[in-house]
Amino acid sequence: MGASEVRLPAGDGKEAFVDAEDIAEVAVAALTEAGHAGWHYELSGPRLMTFGDAVAEIARATGRDVRYVPLTPEAYADEQRARGVPEEWVRTSTGLYEYVRSGGLATLSDGVQRALGRTPRDFVDCAKSAASAGAWNS
Description:
The chain contains six helices and four strands, in the order ββαβαβαααα. It has helices at 20-32, 51-62, 73-82, 87-101, 111-116, 123-132, and strands at residues 4-8, 14-15, 49-50, 66-70.
């Protein structure tokens, strides 16, 4: 079986992928514990990564041959349209990936640390946990 591909127009833009469990823990703390009223928490993971980095970590965690294929926004939009994706979502998602591509999400924050008193979970740990739970078995 050949390599699976993640085909996106994010280029080499970086972002601080945040663990959904960290998001949930911050939400629970903010809603159920004293001391969070009036605070605004920007959440991020502990390091900046490209989509290529993230896909490589998923490949390692799953033992599968998965690779990131950077597309131009135009090629991505054409592929989405060919799959029957509604035009409104094609434009929205292309715009979101352009924001990543341009470096708009290349920011680390301390929200998890401030809200929970610990560092955010690294993407490597997220990928391993998701893989062991069968997240990418299809």
